[in-house]
Design a protein that fits this description.
Elements lengths: L7 H4 L12 H13 L5 E4 L6 H12 L8 E5 L6 H12 L10 E6 L6 H13 L4 E7 L7 H4 L3 E4 L5 H15 L2 E2 L1 H11 L3 H14 L2 E2 L1 H8 L4 H12 L3 H14 L4 H12 L6 H19 L4 H19 L1
Helix pairs in contact: 2-3, 4-5, 8-9, 8-10, 9-10, 11-12, 11-13, 11-15, 12-15, 13-14, 14-15
Length: about 325
């Protein structure tokens, strides 16, 4: 059984661009910037856990040869999203002179799409005023939430989802570093539950390693509080076959035995329905029903009632189709 140590999300985070998994094209361009000793303001856009923050930190480490104190400032914009932060600590840091071999500083704004509109306009002015001595890297899950004046002053790097092989390479890195024994089915389970998010993967794997010497498929799904794909597929197959009572029994098992919330179940339903052997027309209707149920739940409707209503709608539709 593994002993508790630092989070694996940090322990196995690449410290240099050469260690970054996936994102080959982006890494190649960032290495070119390091060789030149200069780069433009940048926006790193993409989903969570695919390397945006890692690339920003690795770029700084390569550029300053690991000596980033005083030349790199990290700010999580979701925690400090108001205009006062931009006018205060960010502006103060931006106007100082870099004491390093490379005469520029880096301000990394993580989750920059959480900044208010006023804060973004203030940031734009700061970027203009201190363009000689400071470079800004903005990380965002949704680049369209960053105002156009900032986007026009930055090079936008769109991070692609990681491939299954990229995720396997990361699992191998952790397994070798920690001496873990991971079953092949457990690797497939990790790929499934992480959905390309390496932070989620590392946290799930570390939690499983604290409880078991050997990582199995069952331990991964239990830790992640996720159902096996075949359990979701069974529930949908029963519903599309018109067997509402049996489908509801499967739903009860998912919500009680696995402790799953409705939104998690719907997300897995959306993934599994696309692989089902049912008429295309029925598949489209089921996806539409899933979207409607998700909307009502997000708006505050009762989760259990909405999930059973979804199964009832699918069952009724299947009988109508027949």
């Amino acid at each position: 059984m593994q002993t508790l140590d630092m989070p694996w999300t940090e322990k196995y985070r690449p410290k240099a661009l050469s260690e970054v998994i996936g994102q080959t094209i982006i890494v190649k361009r960032l290495k070119a910037f390091v060789e030149r000793g200069n780069f433009p303001n940048m926006i790193f856009a993409g989903s969570a856990g695919i390397g945006k923050t890692t690339c920003a930190i690795a770029l700084a480490n390569d550029l300053y040869k690991g000596k980033v104190e005083g030349v790199l400032k990290e700010v999580n914009a979701s925690d400090a999203r108001g205009i006062d932060v931009i006018r205060g600590e960010i502006k103060e840091f931006a106007k100082t002179i870099a004491i390093a071999d490379v005469p520029i500083k880096i301000i990394f704004l993580d989750e920059a799409d959480a900044l208010t509109a006023d804060a973004q306009h203030a940031l734009r002015r700061t970027m203009e005023k201190y363009s000689k001595e400071t470079r800004f890297i903005l990380s965002a899950n949704y680049a369209n939430k960053i105002i156009d004046p900032i986007q026009s002053r930055c090079v936008v790097f769109r991070f692609k989802p990681l491939s299954d092989q990229d995720v396997r390479d990361y699992i191998d890195r952790i397994a070798k570093g920690e001496g873990l024994k991971i079953d092949d089915k457990a690797v497939e389970a990790l790929i499934y539950v992480s959905e390309g998010d390496l932070r989620k993967l590392a946290n799930t794997l570390q939690s499983a390693a604290l409880q078991h010497d050997r990582i199995t498929e069952s331990s991964i799904y239990d830790i992640a509080a996720r159902a096996r794909p075949k359990e979701i597929a069974t529930m949908l197959r029963l519903a599309t076959g018109g067997s509402f009572e049996e489908a509801r029994s499967e739903l009860n098992g998912l919500m009680v035995n696995h402790g799953m919330g409705a939104e998690d179940i719907l997300t897995q339903c959306y993934r599994e329905v696309q692989n089902m052997n049912i008429p295309e027309q029925m598949k489209l209707k089921v996806i539409k029903m899933i979207g409607e149920a998700n909307f009502r739940i997000v708006e505050g409707a009762n989760e259990r009632i909405q999930m059973e209503a979804l199964l009832a709608d699918i069952a009724l539709e299947s009988k109508g189709t027949k």
